[in-house]
Design brief:
This protein is an alpha+beta fold. The protein has five helices and nine strands, in the order ββααβββαβαββαβ. Strands 1, 2, 3, 4, 5, 6, 7, 8 and 9 form a nine-stranded mixed β-sheet that branches.
Length: 209
């Protein structure tokens, strides 16, 4: 288990699967904005369900997210995907259940994933990619300390139109500067403000590159 200030990241259990699938996958419009593949109907019991239980692999680790202040209630899902052990890089994805958005849980979840990636997996670089109009995720990335590195123009097909994607990066040295040697995040005043919006970007599957 990985503990932050507001969230706990743990392994997926069977009772999580249906809740995550129904609230995050069966919400077709939101899912189209968080996955670069076309949505299709799937049962929570399907082996193709993005929230099924599975063992971690060398390049993909998934977590269920609990909100600590709500009696460890299931809040969503988080992943570190595209883990490249040679280049020591990976990408972050999170998806929060609708009732848990707007509480700043996305910021804390990203912080915990960074701590895991940099301090436990020994990564050098972590990336975030999200739609350029996903203001909540843009703010989350920037407040955690990610650097906006550019835009892929009209790179995502979403609900009948092409949309720009923004991409961000964080290097281990930048993370060390923000957190100090003991890993305690040095929070800025503006990070105390609760996030609004989706607080969601690809969390269940790596992009098809």
């Amino acid at each position: 288990m990985l503990r932050g200030e507001k969230v706990l990241l743990r392994s997926r259990i069977e009772s999580d699967v249906k809740v995550l699938h129904v609230e995050l996958y069966d919400d077709v419009f939101t899912r189209m904005r968080t996955d670069n593949r076309a949505w299709r109907p799937l049962s929570p019991d399907s082996e193709l369900s993005p929230f099924r239980m599975s063992d971690p692999t060398d390049d993909f680790v998934s977590f269920s997210v609990e909100e600590l202040s709500k009696g460890h209630e299931l809040a969503g899902a988080a992943v570190l995907h595209g883990i490249d052990e040679h280049n020591r890089s990976a990408h972050i994805g999170i998806s929060l259940r609708p009732a848990f958005r707007g509480r700043g849980l996305g910021i804390d979840t990203v912080r915990v994933l960074c701590e895991y990636g940099f301090r436990i997996r020994g990564l050098h670089r972590i990336g975030i990619e999200t739609l350029s109009d996903n203001d909540a995720m843009l703010r989350t990335a920037e407040r955690v300390g990610f650097v906006r590195e550019g835009v892929w123009r009209k790179a995502a097909w979403v609900n009948g139109d092409f949309v720009d994607e923004a991409f961000f990066g964080m290097l281990v040295g930048e993370w060390d500067e923000r957190t100090g040697r003991n890993g305690t995040v040095q929070r800025r005043l503006d990070e105390l403000v609760d996030e609004a919006g989706l607080e969601s970007f690809p969390a269940s599957d790596p992009p098809a590159l």
